């Protein structure tokens, strides 16, 4: 393998923005290693989001509690997720993306473990609140980290592939639940132990570099250059060829100073408003399906074993769903892709809610799950690229957090709708949420390919 002198590259590019230096890099094993490490983090993030939904039917029987109490547990999770989406941005901006990723992963893993030792509904409500804080904080930090460390032309695809790895955590959690819940009356506790395995992340975190864009935003240019030089050296050695020339970014007049209020100035307010609305509808529609399907099937008369079996089968669709995003995210304008996917979810969700035939439940449930998990990588990348680096964490955190805050009442709404209007009305609610996503993105969303990456 030939060697290359990257010191000259570093000297030449000393004051060239990190974005320009990162975007010209070819994809090598360095990027793929990060993909697997970040995939591990998202794997248990996705597992932790879903542990409650798969444990809920058994918890209802074990503690003899109604659906409305399960709704409160879910609401606690989402209240925590709203706080976490804002706190994650603050922590990340202060201590760095990599350190924040490590801290938030350890936080959600620790509280997931405490879920397993909950003694009563009050204690479970409390630990779900703190688990939600960690889950959401890590997700926001992870989305921003991916958008800042990968080349712009491929960040959507890598977001898709990282989510593909992460979303294996959804069916894995379903099958773990199917295996451990029947073991004993307390078998549901083992689902939360499974979710806590994200605590192993420190063993792999050495493969990640701090975001050089974060260093630049804090005026730490020497440290940014040190990171960039290390990355360029690795890519040189792994590609076996000289790096492409740096294409300097054209300076764009800045309308932001890196403050939270910048999200509401005349330039970014349209994106902020639309993304907040999208995430509210998307979150309520997404978790309205994934969180409640196992519980509603049991409440409607299906056995716990059959409910978990069908739910686990449908959850396998998360993997091909995210893979679709990995293949196509950077090929088409994300605005129109999200619009079409949202409409497909609405159609399949309507058919799912209108049938009680097992074959139709599995087929349309599989399709809903697949398109749900195609939509998420698209929306993650679409949200992060709507803002420049200085306010990207704040903008992403606000939009993502607004959805989580809205879904504090989402489970309560579903419990009320189910109790007063029946099973089918829940799916009318889910369909309406996704139709609103399609309308908002299609009519008012920004075009992802028209955005110009601004120097950090």
List keywords for this structure.
456 residues, Growth Hormone, Chain: A, 20 helices, globular, disordered N terminus
Q: Write down the overall mean pLDDT.
A: 82
Rg, Cα atoms, Å: 22 Å
- Output the helix-strand order: HHHHHHHHHHHHHHHHHHHH
Please summarize the sheet with the most strands: none
Task: Please characterize this protein's 3D structure.
The protein is mainly α. The protein has a single domain, classed as Up-down Bundle (Growth Hormone, Chain: A), CATH 1.20.1250. Helix content is 73%, strand content 0%. The chain is built from 20 helices and no strands. It has helices at residues 7-12, 18-23, 29-63, 67-95, 97-115, 121-149, 155-167, 169-180, 189-195, 212-217, 221-239, 269-290, 293-299, 304-315, 318-328, 334-353, 358-384, 389-406, 410-421, 423-444. The longest helix has 35 residues, at 29-63.
Structural topology:
Blueprint: H1 7-12, H2 18-23, H3 29-63, H4 67-95, H5 97-115, H6 121-149, H7 155-167, H8 169-180, H9 189-195, H10 212-217, H11 221-239, H12 269-290, H13 293-299, H14 304-315, H15 318-328, H16 334-353, H17 358-384, H18 389-406, H19 410-421, H20 423-444
Overview in brief:
The protein is mainly α and 456 residues long.
């Amino acid at each position: 393998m030939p060697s290359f002198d990257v010191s000259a590259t570093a000297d030449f590019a000393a004051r060239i923005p990190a974005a320009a230096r990162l975007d010209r890099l070819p994809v090598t094993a360095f990027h793929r290693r990060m993909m697997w490490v970040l995939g591990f983090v998202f794997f248990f993030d996705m597992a932790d989001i879903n542990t409650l939904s798969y444990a809920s039917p058994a918890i209802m029987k074990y503690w003899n509690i109604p659906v409305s109490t399960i709704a409160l547990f879910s609401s606690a999770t989402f209240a925590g997720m709203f706080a976490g989406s804002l706190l994650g941005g603050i922590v990340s901006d202060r201590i760095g993306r990599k350190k924040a990723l490590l801290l938030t992963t350890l936080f959600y893993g620790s509280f997931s473990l405490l879920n397993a030792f909950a003694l009563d509904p009050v204690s479970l409500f409390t630990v779900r609140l703190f688990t939600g804080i960690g889950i959401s904080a890590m997700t926001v930090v992870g989305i921003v980290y991916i958008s800042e460390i990968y080349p712009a032309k491929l960040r959507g695809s890598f977001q898709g592939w990282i989510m593909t790895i992460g979303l294996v955590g959804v069916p894995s959690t379903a099958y773990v639940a199917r295996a451990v819940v029947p073991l004993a009356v307390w078998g549901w506790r083992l689902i939360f132990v499974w979710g806590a395995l994200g605590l192993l992340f420190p063993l792999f975190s050495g493969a990640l570099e701090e975001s050089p864009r974060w260093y630049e935003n804090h005026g730490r240019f020497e440290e940014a250059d040190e990171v960039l030089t290390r990355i360029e050296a690795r890519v040189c050695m792994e590609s076996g060829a000289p790096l492409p020339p740096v294409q300097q970014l054209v300076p764009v007049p800045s309308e932001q100073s890196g403050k939270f209020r910048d999200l509401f100035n005349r330039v970014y307010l349209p994106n902020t408003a639309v993304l907040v609305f999208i995430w509210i509808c998307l979150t309520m529609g997404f978790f309205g399906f994934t969180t409640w399907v196992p519980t509603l099937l049991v409440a409607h008369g299906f056995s716990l074993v059959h409910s978990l079996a069908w739910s686990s089968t449908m959850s396998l669709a998360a993997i091909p769903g995210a893979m679709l995003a990995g293949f196509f995210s950077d090929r088409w304008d994300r605005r129109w892709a999200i619009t079409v996917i949202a409409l497909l979810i609405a159609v399949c969700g309507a058919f799912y809610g209108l049938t009680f035939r097992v074959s139709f439940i599995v087929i349309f449930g599989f399709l809903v799950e697949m398109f749900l998990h195609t939509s998420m990588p698209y929306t993650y990348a679409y949200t992060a690229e709507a803002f420049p680096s200085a306010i990207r964490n704040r903008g992403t955190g606000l939009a993502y957090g607004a959805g989580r805050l809205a879904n504090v009442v989402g489970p309560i709404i579903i419990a009320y709708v189910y109790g007063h209007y029946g099973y089918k009305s829940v799916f009318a609610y889910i369909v309406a949420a996704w139709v609103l996503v399609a309308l908002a993105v299609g009519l008012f969303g920004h075009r992802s390919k028209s955005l110009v990456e601004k120097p950090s």
